[in-house]
Amino acid sequence: MADKRDEIILRGLQENNLKNIDLNIPKEKINVFTGLSGSGKSSVVFDTLATESRRQMTLNYPLYVRHQMPRYERPHADLMQHLSPVVVVEQKPVKGNARSTVGTYTDIDPLIRLLFSRIGSPSIGSATEFSSEGSFGNCPECSGYGEIVAPDITKLIDHTKSLRDSAVRFKPLAPPGWQGRWMVDGGLFDPDLPIKDFTKEKYNMLVYGPPEGERAFSTYYYKVGNRDIEWDGILPRFIRLYINRDLTKLKITSQDDVLAMTTHAACPTCEGSGLNPKVLECKINGLNIVHYDRLELTELLGELGKIKDPVGKSIAQQAYPSVKQLVDLGLGYLSLSRKMGTLSGGEAQRVKIARHLGSSLNNITYIFDEPSAGLHPEEIEMLTHMLESLRDNYNTVVVIEHNLAVIKTADEIIEMGTGAGVSGGEVVYQGGLEGLKKASAITNLDHKPTINRNPRKAEERFSIRNASANNLKNVSVEIPKNVLVSVCGVSGSGKSSLMFGAFTENYPETISVGQGSIGTSSRSTLATYMGIMDDIRSILSKETGQPVGLFSFNSSGACPVCEGKGVTTPDVAFADPVTVTCEACRGTRYSEEALSYRYKGKNIVEILELTIDETNQYLNMPKIVKKVDTLRDVGLGYLTLGQTTSSLSGGEVQRLKLASHLKKEGQIYLLDEPSLGLHTKDNDHLLDVFQGLVNKGNSVILVEHNLNFIAASDWVIEMGPSGGKKGGEVLFEGTPEEMLESDTLTAKWLRKGVEE
Fold it and tell me: Could you read off the pLDDT of 483-522 as tens digits, one per residue?
């Protein structure tokens, strides 16, 4: 019996596609779950193990406390024993507002503010006064945001046009609006003269209003008469009506329309810090708090180590381990002031990991969702050391992972399969590395990248000239057209700045597929996300003569009992929440009336139960066929039209998002880590899609760490040599075969991958 306590025991797991499986997960080991995207890994690890551990943890608190905490429904399983408290590091984007930074997210900022309040000179006061959100600490000019929104006259006015010909681009100030008509008919300006031909005096009058101390009036003609209204200039009017107010209160004019006419600039009063200039006078060893915030983390460690004051030293020693953790995870080039929203997927993942690793507790279960995501092969080693360190401190590590280097660090491998969706949900293999090699499993640990020995030749090229955003060092590069290109390099080397910044600015027609989430919900399905649900409803409506809304569970077709949710959640007071399938509609979400109408023998629910592979045999409308084919192309043929987006795995979401972009007719596709969340076999399928796009005459550019994609490319560009200030340069341009002879980090790992 003692041995069994060293294992997490799970019996009869039935969440999502799990087929009543049994598992024993050894404690104080690195357990890696692998398998195809959609095979059931997340259903075991997150929906069962993590959820039940969290649920049982909350049972230790009094009822009135539990009522304030997140409440978890018991997973569908027969038995779950010997669980320990969990720390979960998911792939979901980091939540936070526009002010959320690395410093605030990791809770290092409060310690730095405390440090300055105790030993900074001249003394300011309490720690809260070093915050841009405090009444004293925030900058009076920008209210603590660090930037000012200013109208851009080149965006507001097309100088080649006349007022009558809509020279003013901002609709509320242009005809046929009353303010536009007033400018055209009021008599102050020649309405048919191009703005560029105005005299200096007339131009200044139009844009800035009358000189100081003077007034000007322009006639406005009403249906019932006319009157003179004081003219104040386009810029003063725009600022008064649309900048100096709460933009969220705008109705007719949207916030986006206003922001399209403006530029964001660092506030000159606080130099972009958001802090009161008086706060910036307070310094430690010649540096103020903004200097501290903007230091690279490796430099910050040095500054914290210099502090000798006893009080300051004790505070610095509290901040030091958290900063060191980030540096040890390869993020030394970041700063505390770096906005969380600007981090790449791999950077955000590691910041989340660092946030959870400061604890000295043990006997914890650490759960990681593809921690290798966004990491260069050179950085994977740091990750594996971290996982081993957690295990060696008597913790249980559970990892969902596709990266072979991470899988090879496992003490126990659990492979789910055999396929995905309805074909998955079973344990294909459990055991050690050697056993997996011998078993007829899906994951091939000896897989090697295949070098493209016959790359396509490009006749034309895209040009980027003198790019210098973020850490780019005046980069100029030529990118071949109509071929498959991979842009690689370590985290923070400048890949995203070059491609999603400089490249898309030069080529705005680019179809960019980033790493953002798709807004999954229980009411969003594959059919709605891909934009074919309206077509399906129209077919049924036309066939039956019923209104379109009858075939929507968000409209008149909804089951009256569950209101289209398919489930009911009875009020069980302080007990664990319970979700019950709606008895009225049996989970279909639709009313009896909606289900009584059919097209080719199927009602709306039966149509939505069709898999993607089956759809085109039944619904052969060209519009539907085209969109459904893109889902099949990215390997999602096993999913059903009615599957909710909230039930998809990370890899499935990635491919769904990709499919939604592939349905657009484009010539330049730019994709940010399309391999994210995908098994090696899924990657092969995706590569075929990209090669097909190129064969049709498109340009496909991947920002990628995955060696399989890099090896299969026609052209490779590597950024580096490191991250942050030490990055931002082009290290290599050439074919994968030429890269094998190169002396760069990616080349080193490509050679190693091919030779192993």
Answer: 999 999 998 899 999 999 999 999 999 998 877 666 666 7
Eight-state DSSP code of residue 11:
E
Annotate 292-309 with three-state secondary structure.
HHHCCHHHHHHHHHHCCC
Edge-to-edge strands of the sheet including 396-400?
86-89, 365-369, 396-400, 30-35, 412-417, 426-431
Among 519, 532, 515, 523, smallest CA distance to 654 is for 515
Exposed, middle or buried, 681 (CB in 10 Å: 0-12/13-18/19+)? middle
**CB burial class (10 A; 0-12, 13-18, 19+) of residue 465?**
exposed
CA distance 576 to 599: 42
Are the beta carbons of 46 and 52 closer than 8 angstroms? Answer: no
SS3 284: strand
CA distance 375 to 495: 13
What are the respective helix, strand and coil percentages of the chain, to the nearest 5? 40, 20, 45
Alpha-carbon torsion (547, 548, 550, 554), positive or negative = negative
**Are the C-beta atoms of residues 402 and 680 closer than 8 Å to each other?**
yes
Half-sphere exposure (CA, 13 Å, Cβ side) for 555?
9
Three-class secondary structure of residue 141 per DSSP:
coil
Per-residue burial over 306-321, b = 16 or more CB atoms within 10 Å of its CB, e = otherwise: ebeeeebbebbeebbe
Q: State the Cα–Cα distance between residues 144 and 149, nearest whole angstrom.
A: 13
- ∠ CA 563-569-571, nearest 5°, is 120
HSE at residue 387, side-chain half, CA atoms within 13 A, is 28
Per-residue HEC secondary structure of 592-639 comes to HHHHCCCECCECHHHHHCCEHHHHHHHCCCHHHHHHHHHHHHCCCCCC
Look-up: residue for tokens 């955000």? 348
Is the Cβ–Cβ distance between 491 and 379 less than 8 Å?
A: yes
Q: What is the pLDDT of residues 45-78, one digit of tens each?
A: 999 999 999 999 988 888 888 878 888 889 999 9
The alpha-carbon radius of gyration of the chain (Å, integer) is: 30
Alpha carbon distances (Å) from 72 to 528, 575, 649, 666: 28, 10, 20, 44
Confidence class of residue 373 from pLDDT cuts 50, 70 and 90? Answer: confident
pLDDT tens readout for residues 221-246: 877 778 888 889 999 988 888 877 66
